[in-house]
Amino acid sequence: MSAAPASETEPPGDGLTERQRRAAHAPGSVAIVAGAGTGKTHTLGHRYLTHLREGASPLAVVAITFTERASHELRARVRRYARDAFGAHDRRMAELEAAPIGTVHALCLRICRDHPRAAGVPPDVRILDPLEGDLWWSEQLDDALASVPEPLFDALPYDRVRDALASLLRDPYEAERAFARPTVDWEARAGDARRASRARHLAGADLAEALRTLRALPLRPEGDAGERARRNVLAASDAAHADDVEAAAAALHGVRATVGSERMWGSDRDALRGALKIALDALRDWRADPRSHWRVGPADRALAELLPLLHDAWRGARHRMAAAKRRAGVVDFADVEVAAVRALDDRSVQAHYRARWAALLVDEAQDTSPVQEALIARLAAFCRTTVVGDPKQSIYGFRGADAAVFQRLTDAVDASGGETVALDLGFRTHAPLVATSNRAFEELMGELHAPLRAHAPQAPSPEPSLRWWRTDLLASAPAPLVRLAEAHRIADELAQALRSSVPVRDPGVPAGVRPIRPGDVAVLSRGWAALDLLAEVLPARGVPAVHTGGGNLLTTREARDGIAALRFLADPHDDVALAALLRGPMFAVGDDDLDRFATAVPGRDAARGSWWDRLRETRPEWAERALCTLEASLRAARDDPPARLLQRLDRATGWSAVAANLPGGDRRAADRTGFVAWIRELQRGGGDVASVARRLRRLLAAEVQVDRPSLEAGDAVTLTTVHKSKGLEWPWVVVAALDARGRNDAPAVRFGPEVGVAVQVEAPDDPKAIPLAWAWAEDAAKRAREAEDRRLLYVAATRAADATVASSVGDGGPLASLLVPALERAGVQPEVVEVNPDAIAWPEPASVSSES
What integer is the mean pLDDT of 548-554? Predict the structure, then answer.
């Protein structure tokens, strides 16, 4: 690997620093390791321009991004650079509009349509849209399960088989490689793991010195406690190095370091106790390491018998689903990637693109999956390649991204005669914040750590740039109160910052700094739950805030209200839907009235009829408005499509106006509008309300995820997740809910080329035994999760230009346990506020909407 220069100058007239210019004008392939805020997209745009200056047509330069937004941004930037360089009327400007700049899936689909035979897809293939694809996929999986061999269901429950096959079918490239992993090497892998555990815990210099001390001390009588402890520890060490865990455990049983009388040991007692403590700590850490116990057992034999059945079931299900896709002329995102790789293995396809494409640019390469790596490798065989990324920002493991891929891509560039250039001059953050962050992340990031330098020398404020707000509860409190306490703390702190006119940098004003505004702040968290709460609390406390979108639209209050309305209009005798509709914002019937009515109609039977029948019969005063509105809606349902029915209900009840005037009104209004628009798409598959209601039931049963509409925060605090914040920046960033625990879903199967395929299967003679392959996979997944958590914290912290704040309740939780020691190493002291849980209450809504 060729090293970048030790230092670089300020950007000269062309807007590129020395390292940026070196990367942009590299004569061969280049890997650009771009730290946060170091001008990655700027450099990539100039790299594209270099290819054009050297004579390449835009049609011959392939640029891969991983989101539509990123592809639009890159095309716009290249268009601007090219216009400045060549003029608006240059022929290359027209070619740029047709240039292959887009997402990796768009490129894969293009390859498949160009060469359907080699890709193994229909000529007019299309990618299933997310809504259609989730429903279609769920139905086809159920059909495929009908052909699964019965012996597999004898070994595993139906739900586990279904979930396992679903996971394997979602990632066919990795599944194929995982099934190719032999089971005969399990014993060797277990031995390697045990040796690695011994090397990790028992090979340290401190332990070796302690054992030498214990051996060198003069012998004491066998009955002396200190002598027994010494002999047992030495015996345990010998057993450990002989791979005899049981003998080591027996020798260590009851042994303490605080032994040895002064009369018997005299001046040697301190040496004895010190050496015993070091040895006992190391040996017990070794015993606590699960890998020290890994051995092939009965559960592994059961798994070895099961895997051929699972492999056959997967191949059969994959064949049936592939046949159904061919008949429908569709593929999903995983299919199109595999098909494109298959096409590029064909020599005629290679020759075709070798003649057309000369250069390849890959943005955000740290988020690449193994199958995408295979695609890039095939294109790089005949293209001058540029890969851009930052391994510290790889946070999409849940989408199949592999953090190790970027290093392999970088190594491939170097092996091809190219070079690696590291960008470390940050243009986002000032020097004081960069210096503190470097100290905090040095140990947290380990070998990935690459210190940044700051272009801006001064902070806009003398206050600390990296802070830690710790909220402590005076007594234990349930989880909702914990999050509510933190939300109040964040509201208090932000309100104080706004009142105090804390300065932030702004190059657009003459002074270069100005008072902070709500739109200068983002609150980030790993998940959406904490942000849903903040969207209620902050506006009610007078701090404008917008939940910008994320999570499942179908689980929002507005969607549930709309679903209840459609279910009722499809079937007026659906008592649950009617009750939800009445007590919702459309009619706001009080619970007392509903309780009295429910008591009067205790059960559904032929004599009493449904709630709707009884309401129409008795027509209580509190229900009259709802009855008139719903009777009119039922008449309209004979002719109107569902989306129009929802709009009719909105006009009659003020549904959207009610939602807009509640806390988080902008978010609620967007969710309502998004749900109605989604229903409009759904009704294309069957226009009447009964058909749409049936489809809704199937989608909900399949737990289909529908993205919520995105919102721009404007001049309000942005509430979003760390994942959604990628590539964005704000003057102030608050990283919230550090103590919250992430989702801990237990998958039915774990698989990959390193671990093979593993499921939890019971051994007939030992139901508590865990297969070695599962233990191996769990251990790998645990280490991968922790590594990604470290990178997640890095991404969150580097979104800020002026100030980063870590917020937690206490200092526990997976993210806090990683970040808190890093903050302490950097000299960041907690700003503690103690809260009595009894004093925590939901705030009264603000009298005037505070959102933009």
Answer: 87
CA dist 421 and 674 (Å) reads 44
Interatomic CA distance for residues 545 and 736, integer angstroms? 14
**Mean pLDDT over the full length of the chain:** 90
> Cβ-count burial of 768 within 10 angstroms (0-12 exposed, 13-18 middle, 19+ buried)?
exposed
pLDDT(847) > 60: no
Place of tokens 């020398």: 457
- Whose structure tokens read 């009295």? 596
SS3 label, residue 808: strand
Task: Look at residue 848 in the predicted model and tell me its pLDDT.
Answer: 35
Kindly give the pairing relationship between strand 717-721 and strand 521-525: parallel
> What confidence tens digit (pLDDT) does each residue in 443-482 have?
899 889 999 999 999 999 999 999 999 999 887 777 778 8
- The whole-number average pLDDT for the span 232-239 is 96
Would strands 503-505 and 513-515 be described as parallel, antiparallel, or unpaired? antiparallel
Number of helical (H) and strand (E) elements in the chain, helices listed first: 36, 21
pLDDT number for residue 497: 96
Question: In Å, what is the CA distance from 767 to each residue of 6, 51, 300, 302, 319?
Answer: 59, 62, 12, 11, 34
Q: Do 125 and 116 contact (CB within 8 A), yes or no?
A: yes
If we measure between CA atoms, which residue out of 696, 817, 811 comes closest to residue 444? 817
The answer to whether the beta carbons of residues 731 and 521 sit under 8 Å apart is yes
| Distance (Å, whole) CA 748 – CA 711 | 36
Question: Is 558 in contact with 659 (CB distance < 8 Å)?
Answer: yes
Please say if the pLDDT value at position 3 is more than 60. no
Instruction: Give the integer Cα–Cα distance in Å for 818 and 811.
Output: 10
Going through 376-531 in order, the beta strands assigned E by DSSP cover 384-389, 419-423, 425-430, 453-456, 466-473, 503-505, 513-515, 521-525
Tell me the DSSP string of 570-639: H-TT-HHHHHHHHHSTTT---HHHHHHHHHHS-S--TTT--HHHHHHHH--GGGHHHHHHHHHHHHHTTT
State the pLDDT at residue 11: 52
To which residue do tokens 């807007």 refer? 15
Q: Are 550 and 528 in contact (CB under 8 A)?
A: yes
How many whole angstroms separate alpha carbon 385 and alpha carbon 361?
A: 6
Task: Answer whether 792's CB lies under 8 Å from 455's CB.
Answer: no
Beta pairing partners, 504: 514
Q: What is the mean pLDDT of residues 7-22?
A: 73
- The whole-angstrom separation of Cα 122 and Cα 320 is 16
Which ranges of 65-216 would DSSP assign to H, the alpha helix?
A: 68-86, 91-96, 104-114, 116-119, 130-145, 150-155, 158-170, 172-179, 186-202, 205-216
The tens digit of pLDDT for each residue in 715-750 reads 999 999 999 999 899 999 999 999 987 666 679 999
Is residue 378 within 8 A of residue 338, CB to CB? The reply is: no
